[in-house]
Amino acid sequence: MDVQLLLPPSSVRGMKELNREAFQKTLTIPVIILDPEHIRHVLKKVKKYLLKLNNLKPVQNIEGHPEMKRILLNPLLATDTNEILNSFTAGEARVEMQEIVLNYDNWKAEDILRAVLPENQEAGQSYSIIGHILHLNLRDYVLPYKTLIGEVLLEKIQNISLVVNKTNNIDSTYRNFQMEVLAGSGETEVTVKENGCSFTLDFAKVYWNPRLSTEHERIVKRLNFGDVLYDIMAGIGPFAIPVGRKKCSVLANDLNPHSYRYLEKNCASNKVTDRVKCFNLDGNEFIKTVVKEDLLKRWSDPQFCGTIHITMNLPALAVEFLPSFIGLFKDVEDLPSEVKLPLVHVYMFTPDTEDSTAIAKVAEQFGLLADQRKPASEDNQEELPKGFGNNFDSFQQNIKEVFHVRQVAPNKAMMRVSFSLSKEILLGSAVDENEPACKKMKVEKS
Question: How far apart are CA 173 and CA 30, in angstroms?
């Protein structure tokens, strides 16, 4: 039996303007004719053979014969009609071959698009739904079909009113992207729910990816009452707000003014404004001022016994902010004898999912790869501290986890490296076993 039998007609391949009438298709299938009083008994026997398509009832009235019913069977499953007939009591029902007409309404969006788009391509079938917005990231070769794709998805996917396509890469500064409307209309401000919290955002101005909800939850679960989170690239608050609801202290920052506005709005709507303090700063400035000052306050507080976490979720650039931690406290005298070091969760894009690739990207920023030492940048004229190139092995011991978050493209993975900031990095010096006790720092276990 031809497996294409129940799919849209092959003649629609290459269609660029949606023509619903072109999807009409006539086929012959087995049907069971019976008296309504036998419906329940017969359905039990043929349930696995029923023809199941959108907007098509498998049990139907027969026009002109109100005293009879017909049951539609799937021709790919009900291949032996004699076997089916023999399962009935004599005179209970009969099996016939009849014509039915299928049309555009009988197929799902993926069936329509698979029939129309170039063969062996999955473009147009992968999307995200954010509130009432369906978001696509179409590849160049299917752009000629973009209007049809938008119309089909708008009609076939429930509870959406706007279909948009990303037209360029995510802006590395503000983490938003240009987009075009393919179908529908409406505002781009939406409200979504994630990890028990409600988030309002303008999808055209801020970054939001529902596929990261599980990763957000993983990190949130690591924090408990009394802990501290420094969220350096907070966006609209997917880490900061649920952590705040756990009665932790959160300092959340984002450079995008739109993200900052929605971060404050979402803190208010989720009732965490007393625990989440929001900032609109460059990440490097946030680290060197706000984070530094708050860490000193925590370390000086004898009552503080929580753990300290830092999230850096800007995969395209986050590792480039790590040098701001080098020598962050080199100008501070008389540090407390015992301090808890922060656990950093930094995100990045890598060409593969090897732990060593991700670790190397982090270590390089600290000058810990002797053959890849970075020169002083224009923003930071200080060279990396001497001796760091010999401490790569020590750095590896501070790695708590390397995690593959998601595959973005065939050669582009989103990875997370979780590691404890070392004394050497924060003080901007090489390992010195003879340092005074006042310079000792305690590494917090993950």
Answer: 61
Question: pLDDT tens across 195-225, in order?
Answer: 999 999 999 999 899 999 999 999 999 999 9
Residues 6+ apart with CB under 8 A from 391: 368, 424, 430, 431
Instruction: Return all residues near 53 (Cβ < 8 A) that are at least 6 apart.
Output: 6, 102, 106, 107
Nearest to 161 by CA among 145, 181, 138, 136: 181
The pTM of this model reads: 0.82
Q: What angle do CA 159, 260, 308 make, to 5 degrees?
A: 105
Q: Are 92 and 34 in contact (CB under 8 A)?
A: yes
Instruction: Indicate left, alpha or beta for 184 from its phi (over 0: left) and psi (-120 to 50: alpha).
Output: left
| Nearest one of 230, 209, 194 to 343, comparing CA atoms | 230
Contact 345, 234 (CB under 8 A): no
Q: Give yes or no for a contact between 351 and 359, defined as CB atoms under 8 angstroms apart.
A: no
Res 63 pLDDT > 90: no
Tell me the C-alpha distance between 230 and 286, whole Å: 9
Q: Take residue 45 and report the two structure tokens written for it.
A: 């026997």
Which one, of 240, 236, 183, 248, lies nearest residue 205 by Cα?
236
